[in-house]
Amino acid sequence: MIQVENLNKRYGGVLAINNLSFGVDRGEVVGFLGPNGAGKSTTMRILTGYLPATSGRASIAGFDVFEQSLQARRRLGYLPENTPLYTDMRVGEYLRYRARLKGVPSSKVRVRVGDVLELCNLRDRERSLISSLSKGYRQRVGLADALVHDPDLLILDEPTIGLDPNQIRQVRELIKNLASKRTVLISTHILSEVEIMCSRVIIIHRGEIRASDTAENLLSSHRAVGSMRVEAKVGNDSAAELLAQVGGVKAVESEVDGDYTVFTLRLDADADPSEAVMRLAVERKWAVRELTRRRATLEDVFVELTHPAT
Amino acid sequence: MKTFLTLLGREVKSYFYSPIAYVVMFYFLLVAGFNFYIGVEFLNRGPTEITVVEMAFNTVPFWWAYVLIFPLITMRTYAEEYRMGTFETLTTAPVEDWMVVLGKFSGAFIFYCILWAPTFLHFAIFQLITGQLAANASGAYWGSYLLLGLMGMFFTAIGCLASAMTRDQINAAVISFSFITIWFFFGLMPDIWNITDPDKREFFTYLAALQHMADFSRGLIDSRRIVWYVSMTGLVLFATLQVFQYRKWKA
Predict the structure, then answer these.
(1) Structure pTM?
(2) Class (C level, CATH) for A224-294
(3) Do residue A97 and residue B6 have CB atoms under 8 angstroms apart?
(4) Residue B249: which of A52, A97, A101 has the nearest Cβ?
């Protein structure tokens, strides 16, 4: 559905995307992750024909996004970041306008708009002015707009940003429902969302792809890159330094909590230093209150792959 | 064609969504009415060869009001889309760029024509009350309104171009206002520079909006002016398309 080959984008002297190549198959729901400024929005904007690439190729459903922009654009629904809308229009009116603009035949406009209003739970707001809607409703109007011409591919740039937890849940449910029939490329910062919704994850950092796999595979390949939490009464020992010397421990952070100190140990790949830590505690006569090894989450993988130092 | 009409419909309607349309219409009717009153009062002073139509389109208040309406009508066209971010949803819809440019221009031009419609009433009422003809021949009407249409096309196109160049409406208004004002009053330059050579004066007459207005409101319809305004409008629209695409790719 999406084919990207050696895509580059330069803004002035700054390289926003560096030799990006990936593909998305029909029916996949792909999470596009990366820190702010990693090049997510830029990539999405190139795919939607809003920006030209400096070099490289990208195609949607076999149509080059630059050479055959119109055909490519007909096949995709796009929700840009921050959901720009004509706030002076009413919801139904806006969606009818967008449907006609995107080439929905006049006889079908009413039906299509009715369908997306239903799908996005906007029936009761059809006559509301967009300017009077809350952020969550506007997001749904934006989604309804992206869907109104029944595209094969949806490109959603941070659809849940700025929403409260209930709204996020609603939008997430909505996207999950859509995904059954369509290909979706979605960028987000909320990693739990990705684990729930996406069949595959692409992590990009500084314009380059760092990982592209299912969330499960990413986790298993980074399983041990987790952390360990140790809470102990350590007296006057410089415990952080001692813990840092234990094999498999990469870094130690500590925080005082009353008599106790809470240590967070970041671990090397495949390391399990729990026994060594326990031995150390016994040796130094620390009173241990808690010792837990935490499995890596997608967040750990994300941090690992996009850490500023790497 | 359907896409173009959809865009055009949204453009024309967008004037009436906001209070701007009503404020501009009020302002314009007020000034046009004031201007008409001055014209009639002037004619009341004694016998003259000037008709009320000629008078109404060649007074100082008319000129002022006229150059000011274009920035008011056009400043939002593109600047507002850039500012709101809707430029992105507009240009990622399957729509050709030239359609957007033509749709925005046509929308603004239609609103401009709507502004002028009530002024027909001025002359109708004048004839009804005084029992005199507002113009000596119907050519003066058609000439005046035809030129208003032609000049309106050109100046609306300039206003759209100015709006396409900036994301700030005020900037857009200032750019188009200064350009249109200079253009409109450029016809006075031969007198200011004391140019007497008829060929050189002809050059200024060819460009100058003021002289065109004086001729057309007497019913002197000159095809050279028609060609001039239509081709200049085309040129400015073409420039607008270039700016539009440049901004799209630079964004």
Answers:
(1) 0.83
(2) alpha beta
(3) yes
(4) A52
Q: Which of B6, B10, B249 sits opposite A51 (nearest CB)?
A: B249
**A–B interface: beta-carbon pairs under 8 A:** 64
Give residue limits of the domains in chain B. 2-17+70-114+137-250
Cα–Cα distance for residue pair A161/A273, rounded to 1 Å? 38
User: Which part of chain A is CATH 3.40.50.300?
Assistant: 2-220
Q: Which of A44, A45, A86 best tests the B interface by mutation, with the highest count of B CBs <10 A?
A: A86
Block means of pLDDT (10 residues each) for chain A, 310 residues, are 90 86 90 87 91 90 90 93 92 96 93 92 92 90 93 90 80 80 86 82 88 80 71 84 84 86 81 85 88 78 71
The structure tokens listed for A143 are 């989604």
- Residue A224 has a pLDDT of 47
Task: Residue A106: list chain B partners with CB under 8 A.
Answer: 2
Length of chain B as a residue count: 251
Fold that domain A2-220 belongs to in CATH:
Rossmann fold (3.40.50)
Across the interface, do B86 and A89 touch by the CB < 8 Å criterion? Answer: no
Residue B230, strand partner residues: none
Q: Token digits for A184?
A: 């979706």
Please tell me whether residue A22 adopts helix, strand or coil conformation: strand
Contact A244, A252 (CB under 8 A): yes
| pLDDT tens profile B90-100 | 999 999 999 99
For chain A, give every residue range classified as CATH 3.30.70. 224-294
Find the closest chain A residue to B3 by CA distance: A101
3-state secondary structure of A48: coil
